Amino acid sequence: MSDYYSPASETLPLFEAPPPPRSANSAAAAKAIVPRARSIRGSILAHVRDCGAAGATDQEICAALGIDGSTVRPARLALVRRGLLIDTGRDRLTKAQNLARIHVAASEAASQPSCAAGSPSAGAHPPELSPSTTAP
After folding, report:
1. Which 3 state secondary structure label does DSSP give 22?
2. Pair 59, 94: CB distance under 8 Å
3. Is residue 10 domain-resident?
4. Residue 70 is part of which domain span?
5. Is 19 part of a structural domain of the chain?
6. Distance of alpha carbon 15 from its chain centroid, rounded?
7. Contact 45, 105 (CB under 8 A)
8. How confident is the model at residue 30 (pLDDT cuts 50, 70, 90)?
9. How far apart, in Å, do the first and last CA atoms of the chain sit?
10. pTM above 0.70, yes or no
11. Region of 110 on the Ramachandran plot (φ > 0 left; ψ -120 to 50 alpha; else beta)
12. Could you tell me which residue, 4 or 85, shows the higher pLDDT?
């Protein structure tokens, strides 16, 4: 089988090829984040727990915690994979009016109806959109 995909191929070898090599910068960044990864995930989980059933989008987490999206997304994904955060299937609009997925803490979703305005890590959330709702 060729190393390259061509339209004439019968199937795309999704799991046969090794992942692409990391750049030196990417490998260094991955190594540098290891000592802080646990506290970053903990901060994200605590914030989303504070938000209760209202949950939070990645952009809202970034704004509340002052953490870059490139750090928030993989940490949030790790929390989802561990079952600590749940993808609600609901969306909210971002500042740029794009749809963003809302995540809630698995342990807190039923016990706290929404982010409290006075909570230190909470903020006002824009209106929520159902999956069938389209952006204006």
Report:
1. coil
2. yes
3. no
4. 35-109+123-129
5. no
6. 24
7. yes
8. confident
9. 47
10. no
11. alpha
12. 85
